[in-house]
Write a structure and sequence with these properties.
2 copies of one chain form a homodimer.
Chain A lengths: L1 H7 L3 H9 L6 H14 L5 H8 L4 E6 L5 H16 L3 E6 L4 H13 L4 E5 L8 H5 L6 E4 L8 E5 L2 H13 L5 E6 L4 H16 L9 E3 L4 H12 L7 E4 L2 H13 L9 E5 L13 E4 L2 H17 L7 E4 L2 E3 L17
Parallel strand pairs in A: 1-2, 1-3, 3-4, 4-5, 5-11, 6-7, 6-8, 8-9, 9-10
Antiparallel strand pairs in A: 10-12
Helix pairs in contact in A: 1-2, 1-3, 5-12, 8-9, 10-11
The first copy, chain A, binds a DNA duplex through helix 2 and helix 4.
Chain lengths: ~350, ~350
DNA sequence: ATGAAAGCGCTAACAT
DNA sequence: ATGTTAGCGCTTTCAT
C-alpha cells in the first residue's frame, strides 16, 4: 500500500480512503490512485484490515457430517448468503461429538470469526453454556434447536409428524409403529411427540412395543427392526424419524424379503437423495435444508448488525411428498393441506 | 498478552515463547506464565500471529456443489486431515461456474490462506493460468485433473471404465451405449475414452448413435434418452458417466415404464447414495471420495513444507460394486479382479 | 482535501 | 535465560 501511495504521490491514508470510499477524495487524485492500484494489481489484505477493524467478515460453520446431503444443503444455503454479504465461511465437521464441536468453536474463535453457525449441535451440551455467555461470540443454531431464547432456525417437527400419522390413520391404519431413534436428541424427541399427539387425538393407545428408540445407527435400526417385522403381530405401518433410520428400515425389509407398502406401509421424515427415481417410492416429509441455511446466515448477519436484537427462532415448513410407500390412494388429501 | 506478562512478571517475549515453546524457559517462570495464562483464560489470536508469521494455517476449498454427496465426502476428507494438522478450512461453492470459482480463489487469497484445494475445477479455464503462476499460491486439484504437471488427486477413470464395458461385453452384450455427458469436461472425456478402448479391444465398431454427449443436466439426459430407449433398435446395455447422468437415465426408464436390467442393462460410474437399499440395484463404480480429500490435503501440506517438491499426481482406484442392473450372473468375475 | 502517525496482537531479531 | 523493540498491512484519529 505504501508503494501505491508512492506511485500516486499521496499518503497511505488517501489510498485507504480511496479503496474503502470512507472519505471524499478529489476526483483527480482518486483516479490517480485507482490507476496505481490497477497497475500494481493490488489486493487488499483482509488480515491486516481485520486487525484494525476487529471484524474478519468470516463466519464459522460446524456440521456433524458434511457427507449427508441435508448438511450439504444447509452448507450451500449458508455459503450463498455469506457470499452475497461478502463474508467468507470456515467449515468444521464435528462427527456429532461434543468434544470436537467445542474444539471447532475454539479454533473459530482463535481465527476471530464474527459469528458461528452450529448446524446440529451435539445434544450433549457439556461446555455449551460457556459458549453462550453474552460476552461470547454471536451464535446461530441450525436444525437442532435449544429450548432457551437464542437465534436459531429449524424445521417444524411436531405438527408435520402429527399430520403424517393422521394421514395414515385417516387411511385406515391403526397399528402404526415409530422408529424414533435416539430420543435424547431434541429434534427426534419432537418428532416422537408429533406421533404421540396423533395417536392421542385418534384415541389409539400408545404401545411401548411400537416405539423403537435408543437406536443410533443405520445398522442398529436394521437389527432392531427384524424381530419387529417378522410374524403376524407386526405393525401395519411405520413412520421413521430420520434418513439414517429410514435406510435401516429399508435394510431390514430387504433382509426379510418384505415390500412396502405391500407388507408394511412407510412414511419417512427426511428424504433420501434421488428418492424420486427409486423403488420403493417413499412418501416423505422433506425439510427445506437450503433455505434453513440461508435463514441461519441472515439471522447471524442481523445479529452482527444489531447485537441487541431480540433472539429469534425461525421454524420453516417442510414439504409433504406423497408417493407410494404409505399405501394410500393417490388422490388422498395431503395431510399438509397443500 | 501484555496483561499476562505483567501478571507473571515477565516480558511479552517470554510469554510468547512459553506459548510456542520456541526457546527454552526456566521451569519456574514457565509454570508462572502458564498459571497466568490459565487464570486469564488466554486464547491466542491467530490473526495477529498470521500477520507476523505470514502463514494463516488455513486452507481454502472450493467445490462446485456441496449438495452432492461425493463433494461432501471430499470435504470430509479434507476437513479430517486439516484438523489433524492444525489447519482451519475455508469453503466456497462455485456452482460449477468459472467466474465464481475465480472469485472464491481471490477471496481466499485476500484472507491469505496458505493453500487452495480446487475440488472440481470448472473446465472453462479462463483466468486459470493466472492462478497457476509460480508466484501464486499453492494449489491442489481434486477430481478434475489438468494435463500439466501439478499437485492433483483424482480417481482412475479410463481403466475402470474400460473394464466395466469389458464386463458387459464378456457377459454377452454387444450393443452398448454410453451416456457420456459433456465431453469438454476432462473427467468425462476420460470415461468416454475407456468406453472407446473397450469397444476397440473387442472389435465392436463405435457408433455415434450410441454416444449420448453434450447433455449437462439430469433433465437433459432424461429427455435425450427417451427416443433412444424406445423401439427395438435400442441398445442392450448402457453405461453412464456420472451420478446425475444415471439419475437422468433412471428418469427416462421411469417415463417409458422400462426396467433394468430386464429391458436394458445399466452400469453407472459413480454411485447414488443409499444405492444399497433401492431398486433397481445398480452395478456401480464407486470413487473413494473421502480418501481423495485426505490425499489432497496431505499433498497440500507437503507442498507447504517443501515448496520445491516435484508436482505429484495421485490416482486412486475406485471400487466395483456388482449388483443386479448389469444383468450379469452373480458369480461373474469382477472386472477389477478383486 | 489530504497527511502523519498510532496501534491492532503478536513474533523474532537483537540485546543483555 | 530473559527483555526490548521493530514491524506485519492496514484503518482512523488528529492535524493541517
Amino acid at each position: 500500500m505504501a508503494d501505491i501511495a508512492n506511485a500516486a504521490n499521496v499518503s497511505v491514508a488517501t489510498v485507504s480512503h480511496v479503496i474503502n470510499g470512507t472519505r471524499p477524495v478529489k476526483e483527480s487524485t482518486r483516479l490517480r490512485v485507482e490507476a496505481a492500484l490497477d497497475a500494481a494489481g493490488y489486493r487488499r489484505d483482509r488480515l491486516a484490515r481485520a486487525m484494525r477493524r476487529s471484524t474478519t467478515e468470516t463466519v464459522g460453520v460446524v456440521v456433524s457430517d458434511p457427507t449427508q446431503p441435508v448438511f450439504g444443503q444447509m452448507i450451500q444455503g449458508v455459503a450463498k448468503e455469506a457470499r452475497a454479504a461478502g463474508y467468507a465461511m470456515m467449515l468444521a465437521s464435528s462427527a456429532d461429538d461434543g468434544q470436537q464441536e467445542l474444539e471447532a468453536i475454539k479454533t473459530f474463535k482463535e481465527h476471530r470469526v464474527d459469528g458461528i453457525i452450529l448446524a446440529e449441535v451435539s445434544h450433549d451440551l457439556a461446555g455449551f453454556d460457556e459458549m453462550l455467555r453474552p460476552d461470547s461470540i454471536p451464535l446461530v443454531l441450525l436444525d437442532r434447536l435449544a429450548s432457551r431464547r437464542l437465534d436459531q432456525v429449524g424445521a417444524e417437527t411436531v405438527g408435520p409428524m402429527k399430520r403424517i400419522v393422521d394421514h395414515l390413520i385417516g387411511n385406515g391404519y391403526d397399528d402404526i409403529a415409530i422408529v424414533a431413534g435416539d430420543l435424547s436428541v431434541p429434534t427426534l424427541q419432537e418428532r416422537f411427540e408429533g406421533y404421540r399427539q396423533a395417536l392421542d387425538a385418534a384415541d389409539i393407545p400408545l404401545r411401548s412395543d411400537r416405539v423403537v428408540d435408543d437406536v443410533r445407527t443405520e445398522r442398529e435400526v436394521r437389527a432392531a427392526m427384524r424381530p419387529i417385522l417378522q410374524g403376524n403381530e407386526r405393525p401395519r405401518a411405520l413412520v421413521t424419524s430420520s434418513t439414517n433410520i429410514t435406510a435401516g428400515v429399508l435394510g431390514a425389509l430387504h433382509d426379510l424379503d418384505m415390500r412396502t407398502p405391500r407388507d408394511v406401509a412407510l412414511v419417512s421424515f427426511d428424504e433420501l437423495p434421488y428418492a424420486e427415481h427409486f423403488a420403493p417410492r417413499i412418501t416423505s416429509v422433506v425439510q427445506p435444508a437450503v433455505q434453513m441455511g440461508e435463514h441461519a446466515m441472515r439471522l447471524l448477519l442481523r445479529r452482527l448488525r444489531n447485537p441487541d436484537a431480540q433472539a429469534r427462532t425461525i421454524r420453516l415448513k417442510p414439504r409433504f411428498v406423497h408417493r407410494q410407500s404409505c399405501g394410500c390412494p393417490a388422490g388422498a388429501p395431503s395431510p399438509f393441506g397443500d
